[in-house]
Specification:
By secondary structure, the protein is α/β, with parallel strands linked by helices. 50% of the residues lie in helices and 17% in strands. It has ten helices and eight strands. The strands form two sheets. A five-stranded parallel β-sheet has the order 2-6-1-7-8, sandwiched between helices. Strand 4 and strand 5 form a beta hairpin. The chain is globular and about 50 Å long. It binds 2'-deoxycytidine-5'-monophosphate.
Length: 228
């Protein structure tokens, strides 16, 4: 790994963790610092959910879901310094962030037909290195060879507060208790599924962000990357 870094080669950095642990903010900052691609894999599962909902797909029809995944035309683009996701040319960055998409993406991400295709696309996007990959199984399944692996956690209360604030800022009317309930449900679903469950890779460094802001977490990561 050191040799790769010294040779100026591009690294793979993975950041996994539960919803609300601060992964997205930290991944975005880190990717910017290195000039790397920010690979938001949660957004990809959300895009599958959005398309399935729009097509009124029955979740029981796994073959149709597989076809849907294979036909998805997804593109990450940076616009005005922001990471946006496009589906067949349409900017879906906002549409995928609803509570309905929270739930549906979590449900669909447990299906092997969906995971198999998403994993393949994610590996292709990261094949050249130079990527900060954020999700649930980046360090364990998608990029087991990554040079740096982090697992971000935070207490449930703090994660719920962060999600609540995010949604309120977006102008949504939400109740903290419901946000918390949804997080608990999603944590359980993402952690207890059979395929690629949420868990730290054996060689991941776990960082608890309960009492740290995003810049402080990034500083810890940068220090480890520089020393690594
Ligand atoms: O990170 P997020 O909240 O945007 O992810 C939405 C859902 O997608 C999450 O509940 C679980 C799933 N997901 C996954 O199974 N594997 C990933 N690598 C990323 C997300």
């Amino acid at each position: 790994m050191k040799a790769k870094k010294e040779a100026g080669m591009k690294l793979i950095i993975t950041i996994d963790g539960p919803a609300g642990s601060g992964k997205s903010t930290v991944s975005r900052i880190l990717a910017k610092r290195f000039g790397y691609l920010y690979l938001d894999t949660g957004a990809m599962y959300r895009a599958v959910a959005l398309q399935a909902a729009r097509e009124g797909r029955s979740l029981a029809d796994r073959r149709a879901l597989r076809r849907l995944c294979m036909g998805l035309d997804l593109q990450f683009r940076s616009e005005n310094g922001e990471n946006r996701l496009f589906l067949s040319g349409e900017d879906i960055s906002e549409a995928i962030r609803s509570p309905e998409m929270d739930r549906l993406s979590s449900t669909l991400s447990a299906y092997k037909e969906v995971r198999k295709i998403m994993t393949k696309i994610q590996r292709r996007l990261g094949s050249e290195g130079g990527v900060v990959a954020e999700g649930r199984d980046m360090g364990t399944i998608v990029f087991p060879e990554a040079e740096f692996k982090f697992f971000l956690t935070a207490d449930l209360e703090v994660r719920a507060q962060r999600r609540y604030l995010e949604r309120t800022i977006r102008g949504e009317s939400v109740c903290l208790e419901n946000v918390k309930k949804d997080l608990i449900e999603r944590d359980q679903q993402d952690t207890n599924r059979v395929l690629s469950p949420l868990r730290p890779a054996e060689d991941a460094v776990t960082i608890d962000s309960t009492y740290l802001n995003a810049d402080e977490v990034v500083d810890i990561m940068l220090k480890m990357i520089r020393e690594g």
